[in-house]
Amino acid sequence: MNWLLVIGGACLGAPLRYLTDRIVQARHDSVFPWGTLTVNLAGCLILGLLTGAAITGAASPPAQLLVGTGLCGALTTYSTFSYETLRLLQTGARFYAATNVIASVITGLGATYTGAALAQALWS
């Protein structure tokens, strides 16, 4: 049963990642991977909310599998982040590559923290 929850979440997360990435990237005339950054930050925020809810007892283990493992696992993408950063380096866009790494790590941690803090404020 657990694997069905993960699959169900992934069936939502993967197309959501693709569509969000395409929509966001189409709005920016830049080599910077705005779409990937957006989906990764959204996933961090969602996972932070879920984690905060789980800590307070407001999120069940099945919800954690569906949303945390399935949806967020398919929505976020470390491999694409790594590939796009390497591609930026290979094309000489070192500033964008460094910005991508720094922005992804710092804002990702910030989004996760914000989500967890928000969830704890809502459900404590």
Largest sheet: none
The helix count comes to: 5
Q: Given the C-alpha coordinates, what overall shape results? A: globular
Find the structural class using helix and strand composition. Answer: mainly alpha
Residues in β-strands, percent:
under 5%
Number of strands: 0
Distance between the termini: 30 Å
- Residues in helix, %: over 70%
Listing every helix as H and every strand as E from the N terminus to the C terminus, the arrangement reads: HHHHH
Compute the CA-based radius of gyration: 16 Å
Describe this structure in words.
- By secondary structure, the chain is mainly α.
- The protein has one domain (2-123).
- 85% of the residues lie in helices and 0% in strands.
- It contains five helices and no strands.
- It has helices spanning 2-26, 34-56, 61-75, 78-90, 94-123.
- Helix 1 (2-26) runs parallel beside helix 3, helix 2 (34-56) runs parallel beside helix 5 (94-123) and helix 4 (78-90) runs antiparallel to helix 5.
- The model has no long low-confidence stretch (mean pLDDT 97).
Give a brief description.
By secondary structure, the chain is mostly helical.
Task: Quickly list its features.
124 residues; mainly alpha; 5 helices
